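#struct-pred
JK: can someone run the complex with TUI? inputs below
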Amino acid sequence: MIRTPICDLLGIEYPVFQGGMAWIADAKLAAAVSNGGGLGIIAAGNAPGDYVREQVREIKGLTDKPFGVNVMLLSPYADQVAQVIVEEKVPIVTTGAGNPGKYMEAWLSAGVKVIPIVPSVAMTKLMTRLGASAVIAEGGESGGHVGDLTTMALVPQVCDNTDLPVIAAGGIADGRGVAAAFMLGACGVQMGTRFLVAKECSVHQNYKDKILKANDIATMVTGKRSGHPVRSLKTPFTREYFKLEYSQATDEELDKFGTGALRKAVVDGNQREGCFLAGQIAGMVTREQPAADIVREVIEEAEPILRGAMKWVK
Ligand code: TUI
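RT: done, structure tokens with the ligand placed:
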């Protein structure tokens, strides 16, 4: 059995978070993960506060286990969502794609546990000072919005600069990844792409099929020009977007081309115009499974690896 400080801190059985995937991670997926003993997380993404309120009310009817909400800080509705979290007494918040500093006081005084995603040591130190309960160190192997550092380089440096529990994310999809994360000093993991093909994940079947068929070199990063780099599957859309980025196209033209592409992937399964966010481990994700099985399986796989880790040391 693997039990780590994050399990006691949050009241969960397995130290496994499901990533707050925008447009994808809804109350049903999050409830399935939480009921399986991990931490299910509802993604606010770019949705308004009322959507998040509905989702939070729904999950409370589906599980009595702890759950979280992920706030995407680039969202125009981030202020609304931050307020809904307080009003609806959400127990745990994770944040992504920015600095949640301006919400910390309100959340902490409402008793919310705040777990920011940090892409650097500087952000780690700031979040530790501001009262975070833990941090998620997410490397650029992940899908979606990516920082510069890899998980291998980021996690130990984050661990060296905080006493908080560190959750590793980016490039983790099985027990080997979990074991490696623990070796680097993390006491938990967050996975997105692996949960995207969970049975309870309601993303369009075309999206799941594309992940299941992906190989090691199936993803690429676009959006560097705008300062918001995003990793997704190579598709006609991403190749065209990439070309436009390095052309004379204006920022407005580029924005117009990209708008709605994630919705087209998630809701419509549109293989030509959709943007299918995915991590580099998509090539290892080969079967659809119940979310609870994923949570248990990665931890059960990690146990013998961690026990046998010293086999080459005489
Ligand atoms: O947030 C994510 N992944 C995401 S967000 C998203 S929706 C989106 N759509 C279009 C453009 C951008 C986003 C899809 N996937 N992961 C967590 C994450 N956070 N990765 C990196 C960061 C991060 C980056 C900078 C966190 C903090 C940060 O701070 C910068 C600063 O100094 O304010």
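RT: quick notes.
The two ends are 26 Å apart (CA to CA).
DSSP finds 14 helices and eleven strands in the chain.
JK: thanks, will look after standup
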